[in-house]
User: What shape does this take?
Amino acid sequence: MKLVIAIIQPTKLPDVKEALFSNNIRKMTVTNVIGCGQQAGYTENYRGNVVEVNLLKKIRIEVAVNDEFVQPTVDAITKGARTGKIGDGKIFILDLPRCIRIRTGEEGVEAVG
Assistant: This one.
């Protein structure tokens, strides 16, 4: 079991969801986050003052999958989020040593589904 975490542009969320759904991956958690990477932010004028904006709005998607779904999940996220420009995001894959479905008490691959 793996936990796939992706940080993407907010505007690409519909495309990523569509790509995941087309790969039969429907379970996910989505969170609004702020952060910066290689983009390092930008400056803008606000009421006559120059303001440096270095924490940008992003979307964090978490998907717990069994091992056979890791690559289809990564492929779908990449397909949906890629623009070819700086700021497309990152994907992290972590080992998921244990998972428990609260409703039934199932554990492991059965709990992930």
About this structure: Strands lie at 2-8, 29-35, 42-46, 49-53, 56-65, 89-95. Residues 2-112 form a domain with the Alpha-Beta Plaits fold (CATH 3.30.70.120). Helices lie at 13-22, 70-81, 109-112. The chain has one domain: 2-112.
